């Protein structure tokens, strides 16, 4: 059917989602599942009515300049939209949607897994065992630190931050947070969370810091070298948000010299490139951006994309609109 909107999907999505897309739209799928080059992206935005990108697509003003009048909707597969130049999209009158809510619990699970893994040295232990170097139990072998009773400072207390807080509470950690706008008192009380208006002051007092805010111009390198130096030497940084929020080079340097105890990172500044300094450190757990990587989560993300496209095409307001504001 020629009247069906032309939807270009940049990466391989779960089968059930691709099947549904093909039923509903005139869809172009990326069967190779390698990231599109900038030129391929330009070609895609030039021919599409709707683009379905992921975090691996850099949709900058250059790419958007290649979009003609056709492209009306960017229905992102993912919550974070930092890879899309929203100002340029806005100028072109393009609507942007994302997939919030359905990856909250999975991402929070992964953050909690990192909060547990770093101080308990899980991956160090695994490595020793698998390499055949385990010579048996001793009273002092692989002693880590307990998380019970420790202070967790959450940066950005949105859906994911709150889901992390709930988990950490169950592990008897005390919850602290920094956010641009303070949560309503009732929410704060329910969560038994302490608000820190001043990020530096919070950092100086935490045992763990979990980054759970979006990457924006405001949060880019929010944890720069100076801020990271405010942490106590036993503090651990967890990042399941975006690599660009933390100065990776500074983090690696400070961990190396013992000014910070360790880190659990699922996201990096230049994925999939990993700063080689990080790879040298034992007290750092590094994961390949898998926070939302559950079958259930990815299918739910795909369903959200479908709903956003369908409501848009039907001239209704898509539920997960990022743009126009
Ligand atoms: C996805 C994510 O893996 O939603 C996000 O912002 O980082 C992850 O859930 C990825 O971004 C999909 O585009």
From TrEMBL:
<dbReference type="InterPro" id="IPR036291">
    <property type="entry name" value="NAD(P)-bd_dom_sf"/>
</dbReference>
<dbReference type="InterPro" id="IPR050223">
    <property type="entry name" value="D-isomer_2-hydroxyacid_DH"/>
</dbReference>
<dbReference type="InterPro" id="IPR006139">
    <property type="entry name" value="D-isomer_2_OHA_DH_cat_dom"/>
</dbReference>
<dbReference type="Pfam" id="PF02826">
    <property type="entry name" value="2-Hacid_dh_C"/>
</dbReference>
<dbReference type="GO" id="GO:0016491">
    <property type="term" value="F:oxidoreductase activity"/>
</dbReference>
<dbReference type="InterPro" id="IPR006140">
    <property type="entry name" value="D-isomer_DH_NAD-bd"/>
</dbReference>
<feature type="domain" description="D-isomer specific 2-hydroxyacid dehydrogenase NAD-binding">
    <location>
        <begin position="112"/>
        <end position="291"/>
    </location>
</feature>
<dbReference type="InterPro" id="IPR029752">
    <property type="entry name" value="D-isomer_DH_CS1"/>
</dbReference>
<protein>
    <submittedName>
        <fullName>2-hydroxyacid dehydrogenase</fullName>
        <ecNumber>1.1.1.-</ecNumber>
    </submittedName>
</protein>
<keyword id="KW-0560">Oxidoreductase</keyword>
<feature type="domain" description="D-isomer specific 2-hydroxyacid dehydrogenase catalytic">
    <location>
        <begin position="8"/>
        <end position="322"/>
    </location>
</feature>
<comment type="similarity">
    <text>Belongs to the D-isomer specific 2-hydroxyacid dehydrogenase family.</text>
</comment>
<dbReference type="Pfam" id="PF00389">
    <property type="entry name" value="2-Hacid_dh"/>
</dbReference>
